[in-house]
Amino acid sequence: MAFTIKQNDTSPALQATLRDANGLGVLLTGATIRLHMVPLNGGTTLDKAMTIVNATQGIVRYNWVAGDTATVGTYSIEFEVTYSDGSIETFPNNDNLVVVITPELN
Q: What's the CA dihedral at 27, 29, 30, 32 to 10 degrees?
């Protein structure tokens, strides 16, 4: 399932629950999260810091800013976690998620 947002919109925020192999939210206490968003047809990669909404349940959010959704297209996204011990894990680890930016009416 894709997250869809209209071109140049900054709402709604992109929110996700990062889950372990058992389907439980991962512990994010002391971690940092980065959103990586790459256009499927090539182009500039978005690499932005995310907010941890609930560290014990693995819930993260990215609040779009002006320019993030300016280019219409389909994007592959992933969430890169750097834990407090320096180890890195990417979610989802078995696939990528999809963001679709649809054209606005002029």
A: 60
